[in-house]
Write a structure and sequence with these properties.
The chain is an alpha+beta fold. The protein has 10 helices and 12 strands. It is elongated. This is GGDEF domain-containing protein.
Length: 264
């Protein structure tokens, strides 16, 4: 998802020589949390409601505004924009297109949107997020491992012990993923009992990592096993020629084949 889909295209401006009180009145009138500061047709800063609250009413906007505007292109992914805002500890970003400011995006908007992309049962991101991560790594020509994991005979587990039991298993496995997570790992719940992992971990770590990921789950004296398929981008000559969709097909088939060998 791109920033341009979420930004507010309408924004208001104020001159730098206007008083802070005047800027506050504008914000109240238009029900906005920020104003672009414009002098002689040029944007020279941004002033937010927080800036206004912390400034003396007799000061002018130039004294209260932020001079160095941090902006983001409207084609930027929402996760990148949110990361930029968290890094700079700012509440609003100016959104540009072809070098011109075309809108405003708030951190609250981005947080709300990204939280909607979380799976409510497991609190993991959905596949949109992993597609974004993999796409970014591919564009940066950075190789990675792609792992597909699903439960063995999950349908039978649900039938024999009920869906609440199955949901508990999914939550336990999601907790495992989060406990194992390091800065090189990205997870999502792909659907049902299927999970996908992108990791840039060193190859020497992979065997141990996979063992931990696929360790059987024990719940109420019942043991549930898991199967995994792995694509090793470091060994694939045509890695950067494949799409993420192609990779998903290959890695899910690898998991299915491993499952057949385990079950037979």
């Amino acid at each position: 998802m791109r920033v341009g889909e979420l930004m507010t295209a309408s924004f208001y401006t104020v001159s730098s020589i206007k008083s802070v009180t005047y800027a506050a009145e504008l914000m109240e009138r238009f029900k906005v949390g920020s104003l672009l500061v414009v002098d002689d047709g040029e944007i020279i800063g941004i002033v937010t409601s927080r800036d206004i609250r912390s400034a003396h009413p007799n000061r002018i906007v130039a004294d209260a505004s932020t001079k160095d505007i941090i902006s983001v292109d409207k084609e930027c992914f929402v996760w990148d924009a949110l990361s930029m805002m968290e890094r700079h500890e700012i509440e609003r970003l100016a959104v540009t297109a072809e070098g011109k400011i075309t809108g405003i995006i708030t951190r609250e908007t981005l947080r709300n949107k990204t939280s909607q992309l979380l799976d409510p049962l497991t609190n993991l991101y959905r596949v949109d997020y992993l597609e974004y991560v993999a796409g970014k790594l591919l564009r940066d020509k950075q190789k990675f491992h792609l792992i597909f994991i699903d439960f063995n005979q999950f349908g039978k587990v649900n039938k024999d012990y009920g869906h609440p039991f199955g949901n508990d298993l999914l939550k336990i496995f999601s907790r495992r993923l989060l406990d194992l997570k390091c800065e090189h790992d990205y997870f999502c719940r792909y659907g049902g009992d299927e999970f996908v992992i992108v990791t840039t971990r060193d190859e020497t770590e992979m065997d141990k990592f996979l063992d931990l990921l696929t360790a059987p789950i024990h719940l109420n004296d019942i043991c549930i096993t898991l199967s995994a398929g792995v694509l090793n981008g470091y060994n694939e000559e045509s890695w950067f020629e494949m799409s993420f969709r192609d990779m998903l097909v290959k890695v899910s088939l690898a998991s299915t084949n491993n499952k057949k060998r385990q079950v037979s």
